[in-house]
Specification:
It is globular and about 55 Å long. The model has no long low-confidence stretch (mean pLDDT 87). Helices cover 6% and strands 55% of the residues. Strand 2 (21-33) and strand 3 (36-39) form a beta hairpin. The protein has 208 residues and is mostly beta strands. The longest helix has 13 residues, at 195-207. A 6-stranded antiparallel β-barrel has the order 11-12-13-16-15-14. Strands 4-5 form a two-stranded antiparallel sheet.
Length: 208
Amino acid sequence: MKLSELKKGQKLTIRCKHKTLLVDMKAKVADIRGEVVLLYLIRHDNQIVDFSSPQVHIITIYEDGLDMPKAWTNCRIQRRTVDGKEYHALAAPKTSVRVNRRKVPRIVLDLPGKVRITNLPSGLDITVHDLCVNGIGFQSPVKIEEQEHRHLQIEFMDESEDDEEIKVEARVVWKKELKDGAFYYGCRLTHMEENLGYYVAEKIRQNR
């Protein structure tokens, strides 16, 4: 699939990676001009994002809910004015590839943690089951309301790694009700701290 095959109004995920730092941002297609996709200006923390740094690796992900997500790598995004309006112009050197996120190495933890949601500022006690650089799976004793699914703050402590503290932000992509009344949530990471990549890599090394 080429970028130019996208349609106006379709939503994308723009994934920016710098070393071990990863941030996902939402984008929406405004128009298609040849092989360039014009996006409504992308904002993060209420600021228009500057994608000009050559050290940032940009991946564009499209999901239609019918097939595996499609991803374009080595993308470039620049500010552009078209017909008097400003956009982010997205281009990719190659066609997309289908992405199976479960192929990403993950580690099994089963560690106690907390998820912070609006109606429980002190946090809800959870069990963090597994983790990778793309996602996290955890079990909650109670159901988390749908309106909280897009922005969860999750944290846990790994005492076996000299009290390594892990904090991530995540979005629920699927859930399952368990027989004992608890719920299992599979999430995609939308933001993580730099130590996560090193932590996952070290755990994988130890388990080999």
